[in-house]
Amino acid sequence: MGTQMTHTARAELANAVQQRYRAAPVAQRRKILDEFIAVTGYHEKSAIRALSTERTNRGRQTRVRPPLYDGAARAALIVLWEASDRVCGKRLRALLPILLAAMERNRHLKLNEPMRQKILPMSASTIDRRMRAATRLKKRHRAVPERRRRVPVRTFADRNDPPPGGMEMDLVAHCGEVNRGSYVNRLVLADIATGWSESAPLVVRESGLVC
């Protein structure tokens, strides 16, 4: 028969009935089993298995893992993130070895070896999470067009040392947190190999001006 009992309710009922079922004589087990099937909707073989299997009443134990990144690691990551002009996690992940070596060489930052082993292997998603938490920014869930999802995010590390002259272009909206009204857009071109960038303001976002 059909039943609306949840899996948790069925398990609790099986725990309650199991001891009486296993201690009952064979003649009474049939009656207990029929009552259990009528209430839970179990197939006969499933009901027998549920009442015969040894169960424990111990709750699920949640394993608490100590945090891997302490305050010092987050502080060092923020320094590197700010020095990179707050690039996204994927780009900062590729830049970390070069950026850290340059900052240490110029005495802007000095990390001990255990700290380096925490920072350098950090994944792009972890970097993004840590930076959002540090700046109290909530991730905005918005629909991304299918065409944009097909374009992978590439960094200089994915291009096998390209020669100078290959440029990336993007428009930056200077509208703050409110995307309405009149505001200036900035067209930014960055050289992939050298990091050199040029920018120009656009009063309106119009394709003719960009071309």
Quantity of strands, as a count: 3
Principal-axis shape equals elongated
> What fraction strand?
5-15%
**What is the alpha-carbon Rg in Å?**
30 Å
Bin the helical content: 40-55%
Counted by DSSP, the helix tally is 9
Q: What strand line-up does the widest sheet have? A: 1-2-3
Q: Biggest β-sheet: count, sense, barrel?
A: 3 strands, antiparallel
Number of domains: 3
Low-confidence spans: pLDDT under 50, at least 5 residues?
Answer: none
Write down the overall mean pLDDT: 79
Given helix and strand content, the structural type is: mainly alpha
User: What is the assembly state of the chains in this entry?
Assistant: single chain
Q: Calculate the terminal CA-CA distance, rounded to whole Å.
A: 70 Å
SSE succession: HHHHHHHHEEEH
Describe this structure in words.
This protein is mainly alpha-helical and 211 residues long. It has three domains: 46 residues; 65 residues, no CATH class; 49 residues, no CATH class. The protein is built from nine helices and three strands; from the N terminus they run ααααααααβββα. The model has no long low-confidence stretch (mean pLDDT 79).
Q: How are the SSEs placed, and which strands pair?
A:
Elements: H1 7-23, H2 26-40, H3 44-52, H4 71-83, H5 89-105, H6 113-119, H7 124-135, H8 146-149, E1 167-174, E2 184-191, E3 197-202, H9 207-210
Antiparallel strand pairs: 1-2, 2-3
Helix pairs in contact: 1-2, 2-3, 4-7, 5-7
